[in-house]
């Protein structure tokens, strides 16, 4: 089952403050990683929580031609701030997380599957460690494993790289792209690192003030004009010798905010 995700006239308010304003995205394709970009306070986390069904919203979120069914675990969500740990081992926590799958069935994952997933993330050596004894980066990796083992159709990750070192940042983005293609997932990742978005994602959405300013391939969305308009910086996009675009910031054009 691979279907595209679409958002139609999505609005979210906190009390009287409207934070996401009638946002529409016609199609996020299965098998593609989308970067959700924008300055601090632009509504990225709010939008992700609305997609995950954790935030009341107006408008429609559809997978293919029907509403996304969050209650049956079609979407897996990793928050920006990880919840407090329970006293379980990494392995036990994955067995629990894997009970509810996208099919809505209660499936017991074999030990081998859990170990294989931990190995693919490079954290098999942590299987017997307790969650509350891990470093921030290790917990982030386990959080990603817990989301993946649910086999969601839609994977929603809020700043999953923030606690990771350079090596794991690259490794995780690479793995997410491969798994997204292999499983035909729709993956949406909030990223601050525009260079990671340029290198590792298929599409970018640029938010500012709760509105969608751009939607397209990352190198279309991230350019000098956007850097100035959205982030208030003078910047350039250059291609490295391998042909990968990356941005350089030369100075501030005005105070963003
Ligand atoms: N629970 C909340 N209650 C009230 N206002 C909130 C809440 N969460 C976020 N906001 C406000 O909504 C706006 C968008 O926040 P958020 O979605 O966290 O932005 P981002 O993730 O892009 O930094 C901000 O102005 C923020 O202060
Ligand atoms: Mg946020």
What does this structure look like?
The chain is α/β, with parallel strands linked by helices. The protein has two domains: 5-222, 3-Layer(aba) Sandwich (Rossmann fold), CATH 3.40.50; 223-257, no CATH class. Helices cover 30% and strands 30% of the residues. It has eight helices and twelve strands. The chain has helices at 44-51, 90-97, 111-120, 136-149, 166-183, 194-200, 218-221, 224-231, and strands at residues 5-14, 17-28, 32-37, 58-63, 66-67, 75-78, 154-158, 186-190, 203-208, 211-216, 233-239, 245-252. The strands form three sheets. It has a six-stranded mixed sheet, with helices on both faces. Strand 7 (154-158), helix 5 and strand 8 form a beta-alpha-beta unit. Helix 2 packs parallel to helix 4 (136-149). The longest helix has 18 residues, at 166-183. The protein is globular. The termini are far apart. Residues 5-234 form the ABC transporter domain. It is found in: Cell membrane.
Quickly describe the structure.
The protein folds into 2 domains: 5-222, 3-Layer(aba) Sandwich (Rossmann fold), CATH 3.40.50; 223-257, no CATH class. Helices cover 30% and strands 30% of the residues. The protein has 8 helices and 12 strands.
């Amino acid at each position: 089952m691979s279907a595209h995700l679409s958002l139609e006239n999505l609005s979210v308010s906190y009390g009287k403050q409207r934070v996401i304003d009638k946002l529409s995205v016609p199609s996020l394709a299965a098998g593609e990683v989308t970067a959700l970009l924008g300055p601090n306070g632009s509504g990225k986390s709010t939008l992700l929580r609305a997609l995950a069904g954790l935030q009341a919203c107006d408008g429609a979120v559809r997978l293919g031609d029907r509403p996304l069914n969050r209650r049956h675990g079609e979407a897996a969500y990793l928050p920006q701030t990880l919840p407090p740990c329970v006293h379980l081992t990494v392995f036990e926590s994955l067995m629990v997380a894997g009970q509810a799958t996208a099919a809505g069935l209660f499936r017991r994952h074999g030990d081998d599957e859990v170990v294989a997933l931990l190995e693919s993330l490079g954290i098999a050596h942590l299987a017997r460690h307790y969650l509350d004894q891990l470093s921030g980066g290790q917990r982030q990796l386990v959080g990603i494993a817990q989301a993946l083992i649910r086999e969601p159709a839609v994977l929603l990750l809020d700043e999953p790289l923030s606690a990771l070192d350079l090596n794991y940042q690259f490794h995780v983005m690479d793995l997410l792209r491969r798994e997204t293609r292999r499983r035909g997932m729709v993956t949406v990742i909030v990223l601050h690192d525009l260079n990671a978005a340029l290198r590792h994602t298929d599409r970018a959405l640029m938010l500012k003030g709760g509105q969608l300013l751009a939607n397209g391939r990352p190198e279309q969305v991230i350019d000098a004009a956007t850097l100035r308009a959205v982030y208030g910086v003078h910047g350039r996009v250059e291609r490295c010798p391998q042909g990968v675009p990356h941005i350089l910031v030369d100075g501030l054009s005005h105070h963003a905010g």
